[in-house]
């Protein structure tokens, strides 16, 4: 069809929907797989960026949310709830609005990017700022979903994983086979779980002949999977992955171990360096958490632990416009000039 129908229609046979399922879609998916020239040069590999910020609400969460809201509607739910570091709430609010459902959102007070807060509000979500971190919000949302008539749409909901696995399908559909390595930022660990499921399915009964090694990267101040211990007070500038007790922890370990991959930590400094490199050299503006995948790739390559010549895909999970703070604070303040060509030219060094 001339119009991309959204990922449920595109991958219908591989998703838990029937002919009568009321599909709720914003035509998400089919995101660009962009060759990364500078990253390829630096690593000696063939690197691509899966630009998930190109989804309707600006993050990969839309893949999971089209499925989760569709199934909630099919099952007769009138209201959904989620805990979020921002992107899940933005996506849930939008898809709930599309479905005519009520959306409740629990976010850690003062710890989500302004653009994401704006999205939840503009789409009409009922938003509560919780005096706690993401892990507290998720515990609270889970309890409310048990005790009250509201469906939980965090990634502990298997339909979220089903939707998100389609990103792996798209990578294989474009490249012709799975890459050697796939790099992802890791927070609650739903997405690495979903990608691994997608790659496994496509290899077992689809067009792929192999599976990639899965490389996950957490922020150093919020790296429970790396240290093996719950982080009581997670801290990182990458607020999207400021999570101390990931819900899909054991599934992330399975993805790592079954694929011969790794889960490592990257510092905030490394994240910001990758964030700036992506914007300046690849012209891809992502939010800080998204840059963790690229920071991790550069770190592994610099340590000599990446064989040159491999095909590598880094998912950049969210759009930079959601969290412009770090773009502005890292740049010189704009100069003001009068309406005068000579003055403008002098300031521009022309
Ligand atoms: N990147 C971004 C931009 C995210 O928003 C998230 C998670 C991740 C990476 C990590 O993905 O949790 O599946 O390991 N954001 C969630 C949220 C927690 O509430 O928006 P994950």
From TrEMBL:
Known cofactor(s): pyridoxal 5'-phosphate
Q: Which CDD domains match?
A: Thr-synth_1
> Record's superkingdom?
Bacteria
Query: Does the record bear Lyase in its keywords?
Result: yes
Task: Please state every residue range assigned to the domain named Tryptophan synthase beta chain-like PALP.
Answer: 24-318
Q: Which Pfam families match?
A: PALP (PF00291)
Enzymatic reactions: O-phospho-L-homoserine + H2O = L-threonine + phosphate
Q: Which UniProt keywords apply?
A: Amino-acid biosynthesis, Lyase, Pyridoxal phosphate, Threonine biosynthesis
Which EC number(s) are documented for this chain? 4.2.3.1
Indicate yes or no for the key word Amino-acid biosynthesis.
yes
Briefly state the protein's biological role. Answer: Catalyzes the gamma-elimination of phosphate from L-phosphohomoserine and the beta-addition of water to produce L-threonine.
Quote the protein name from its UniProt record.
Threonine synthase
Organism of this sequence: Geodermatophilus arenarius
Give the classification, highest ranks: Bacteria, Bacillati, Actinomycetota, Actinomycetes, Geodermatophilales
């Amino acid at each position: 069809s001339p119009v991309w129908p959204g990922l449920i229609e595109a991958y219908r046979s591989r998703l838990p929907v029937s002919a009568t399922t009321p599909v709720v879609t914003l035509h998400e998916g089919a995101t660009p797989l962009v060759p990364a020239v500078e990253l390829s040069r630096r690593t000696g590999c063939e690197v691509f960026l899966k630009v998930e910020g190109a989804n309707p609400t600006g993050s990969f969460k839309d893949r999971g949310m089209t499925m989760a809201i569709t199934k909630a509607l099919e099952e007769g739910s009138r209201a959904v709830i989620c805990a979020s570091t921002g992107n899940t709430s933005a996506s849930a609010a939008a898809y709930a609005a599309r479905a005519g459902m009520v959306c409740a959102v629990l976010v850690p007070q003062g710890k989500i990017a302004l653009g994401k807060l704006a999205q939840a509000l503009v789409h009409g979500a009922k938003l509560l700022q919780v005096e706690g971190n993401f892990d507290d919000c998720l515990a609270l949302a889970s309890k409310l979903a048990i005790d009250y008539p509201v469906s939980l749409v965090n990634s502990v909901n298997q339909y979220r994983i089903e939707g998100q696995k389609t990103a792996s399908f798209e990578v294989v559909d474009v490249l012709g086979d799975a890459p050697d390595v796939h790099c992802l930022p890791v927070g609650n660990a739903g997405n690495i779980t979903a990608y691994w499921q997608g790659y496994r399915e496509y290899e077992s009964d689809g067009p792929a002949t192999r599976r990639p090694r899965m490389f996950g990267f957490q922020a150093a101040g919020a790296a429970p999977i790396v240290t093996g211990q719950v982080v009581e007070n997670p801290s990182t500038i990458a607020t999207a992955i400021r999570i101390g007790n990931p819900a899909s922890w054991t599934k992330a370990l399975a993805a790592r171990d079954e694929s011969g991959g790794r889960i490592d930590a990257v510092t905030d400094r490394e994240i910001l360096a990758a964030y700036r490199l992506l914007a300046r050299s690849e012209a891809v503006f992502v939010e800080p958490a998204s840059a963790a995948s690229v920071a991790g790739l550069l770190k592994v390559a610099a340590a000599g632990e990446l064989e040159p010549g491999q095909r590598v895909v880094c998912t950049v999970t969210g759009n930079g416009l959601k969290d412009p703070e770090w773009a502005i604070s890292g740049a010189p303040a704009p100069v003001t000039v009068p309406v005068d060509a000579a003055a403008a030219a002098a300031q521009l060094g022309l």
